Amino acid sequence: MASNVDAADGETVILICIDSDGSSLDGDHEEIVISTAEVSQWDLTSLAHRPIIKIKANRQRLIQQSSYFHGLLCGSFSESCFDSISIHWDMESLLSMLRFISGFALDLTSENFVPLYEAALFFGVEKLLLKIWSISGSMVERMINMGYHAAIDFIPQVTDYLARNFIWMASRDSFHTVPFELLLSCVKHPCLTVDSEKHLCDAILLWLAANTNLSDLLSFTGDVRLDILTEIRTSLLSLPFAAGKRRCPFFSKFAERSVVAICSLSTSRSFNLADILGGGDCNQLRIRLTEYTKILDLSGCPQISLPLLLLSMLPSSSNLDQMLMKKLNQLSLKLEHHMDIPRIPWEIFPVLTFEAVQVVDVSNCPRLHLEAAIECFSKSFPSLTTLKAAYILNFRTMKLYQLLQRCPLLSDIDLTVDNTPVIPAKVSVISSFPAVTLQISTSSNDETCPDVPAFHFSRQLSNITKLILEGRTDIYDSDLKNIAECCPSLICINLNACTSITDSGISILVLKCVELHSIFACDTSFGHNCVLSLCRNISRIDAVAMKMADHTNSLAYKLQILHIGGCKSIDETSLLELISQTHGIRSLCLRETQLLDNCLYKFSGSSLEMLDVSDTKVSCQAVGHVVRGNPHLKCLIARGCRRLLQEENDILENSNVLSYNCPVLYYELGKFCNLEEISLGWGFSFFSLEALQPAIKMLRTFIVGLGGSLGEDGLRLVPTFCPRLETLILYFQVVSDSVVRNILATLKNLEVLALCYCFGEISSLSFQSSAPRLRKLKLERVSTHMTNDDLLTLTQNCMNLTELSLVGCRRLNSESQDTISNGWPGLISLHLEDCGEVTAKGVTSLMNCQALEDLLLRHNGLGMDRNFIIRAASRMPLLRKVAVDVCDAKDGDFDLPDFLDRNFLRIVKIARCNLKRRTLGSTKSGTCTTPVHVETLILTRDSKKLSRTVVKERL
């Protein structure tokens, strides 16, 4: 088999292999010629003693498998054009390596481990290195424990390799078997390469948990190995990660100090290391960057600022020059007071270059001046291809063009922000205040990122293929036009909830970017003009191609992803024309559109993997038509489709004998598909679940909404039918303690559980089982009798929650704040509504949940201070969304935050209610009132303006 492969691969090269051990030259000097095409016939024992061997090897195989031979045979070396090359190396290890390259199984022993490792390292055979380390964990431990002499010279090489590939090592199942001395050496190694400090911390904690006695963990004494935790640069951990580790038995003290340091750095108005470190080692504030770093992940780090970024890019030294520190502090103060800054003096900050860095993630880094940071990236990361900068508001879209100019290799940019709640098609606006323009300096001496008009850019400057602008209300038609000019190679654009752009603006982008195959435009003005642009023949200049019989050259025909959910401006006729041409589509979202059956019947594609038709008027028969033609469908979202409702009698009558064209959707899904996600409502029942059984064995997400009725028997079957579920969301279903206990006890992979407005009542008995993997929990109007003790039980069995929503738990009191903040210190989302007296004495302990990004407190007791929103924003550096109700304000109102201050807030929602007398029971003594929603004030900001809108909806 090897012979056939080598023959097919092409030309050969002669390797003249000369044993590096001079003593062997006294042996047999007869010339031996062998071939890698006959590797299975090699006698390694006899060949290993030969001083010189000529080997015929496949040139392309060597180039593909070895970086050494790739450089030698493809580069500028003279050997690249030779038919033979000489290699001086240990004969046995060289032959073993060549056998592996040629597809022969690896025979790894304690005797050949070191020589093989050295050969793989020198010749750059990555697959051999990975193979060695996948089976060698226990062997290394034995070598060290038995004191092999070879290990003395071997360990430094191992340490060097593992330090450079630490992320890979930590991902191996055998990681916990790595000897402590080796682990410590890797962590201390100057070439330690990790994506972020949290990855290093997680790896160390994982190793310690597997190798440390429980008593030592609890007492934090008695095991010197715990000292390895001091190697973690806790000031550089992400805030949600550090806050969540407050409950870790042997890391709690470090985590507490980490949170304090992070919050101190994020609120500091200067960059004075003497104050920050108290005279300590500045290396503790250096982001780990090595020549091998490929990914830099700083997401969720509010402490990251431009001076700190510069500090990490400067040459390492134990003590920084005082003048340099003064300059860093001056830079910090300038950024504090101005949006724009003067040119960064690179002669003062001689940053290093890290050629290997390809991906940078600075999402949720509110203190980082992104425009100035891009200057640093362009200097230090010349190979940067992916920039993730989600939830950063201070990046003006006009600077996108400068970003493309300064980082020409960029191909993937993510500038997502939270979607505005004021989606025109979804809310009824009562009044809208004039938008307030934010005071941003636009001085002409801005040399950092001068505004260069888009038409100055060469089309060759931009390699952007994927651009995510989701939620950005500061994107306008003119921006789309410029993007189309700058990014001719664009294949994926995400404009979801970009409410300031028009149908015409999107259509211009579609017309100019003819390589587009993925469009995300939900909740925008996507409409008739966009359909015309997608359906036109891209090989023609005229605009009448939409009516041509052959649509195979239209952009619609080549689309792979089209998400236009919530786009009300696209009429039925345009939708019909568009769907009839989307032949190659893989993912199609049409939720809340004017979608009817005739549109789906026109769909002729066979590659569909995701279909969202929720809240439309489609029927079982039309959806079934699509299902039958798309056997690779993995995701179906059809909640809110009333026409899917069928009589149970019809299903029962057809349950025994079904024809190929049976209109029962669920049997067709069960027959044709292997689903990973499904969301259904009207018409979905216990019998539907049984019909679906063959299709949901691999299901990961299961959502049942209004109109569906599984019953307790159906819910008991869910864990059996779907053992791999990660997300389970139930609306208006009948639940009980036994049902919930069964779900938590059997679904070991469950990460998201939502029980919303369900019938029945659950108690603390539901959460007696431990659910360590559960991350998101919603209990809305389903646990009205929950007490603080019940909540405490919940914190003990669901320890790792990051998102919690409780609605209607009316027996909770102010003490529950302590329970929540102590039990889940790493929460990033907290919604408490109609929860008794939680805020009757104000909001105190909840302020200790400093990693919160989304906070909703409504109808939980009249006791919230007037300055609550301002105080929360100052205490929680990552807080982006706040929702309150004036019913809870003890002074009758809330002070509005200054959005120009240092807070990260983007969306503030303040609802207002009237207390209305109930008609029933009004004759009884005393007043009997209930809050009735009146309106909601919504404040949203983007990089340019602050908007104030009053709507009827309770958002």
Task: Give a nutshell description of this structure.
Helices cover 33% and strands 15% of the residues.
Question: What labels would you give this structure?
Answer:
955 residues; 24-stranded mixed sheet
Describe the structure.
Pfam families: BACK. May act as a substrate-specific adapter of an E3 ubiquitin-protein ligase complex (CUL3-RBX1-BTB) which mediates the ubiquitination and subsequent proteasomal degradation of target proteins. InterPro entries: BACK (IPR011705), Leu-rich_rpt_Cys-con_subtyp (IPR006553), LRR_dom_sf (IPR032675), SKP1/BTB/POZ_sf (IPR011333). This is BACK domain-containing protein. Pathway: Protein modification; protein ubiquitination. With 955 residues, this protein is α/β, with parallel strands linked by helices. The protein has 35 helices and 28 strands. The strands form two sheets. It has a 24-stranded mixed β-sheet, with no helix packed on it. Strand 14, helix 26 and strand 15 form a beta-alpha-beta unit. Helix 17 runs antiparallel to helix 18, helix 21 runs parallel beside helix 22 and helix 22 packs parallel to helix 23. The longest helix has 16 residues. The protein starts with a helix and ends with a strand.
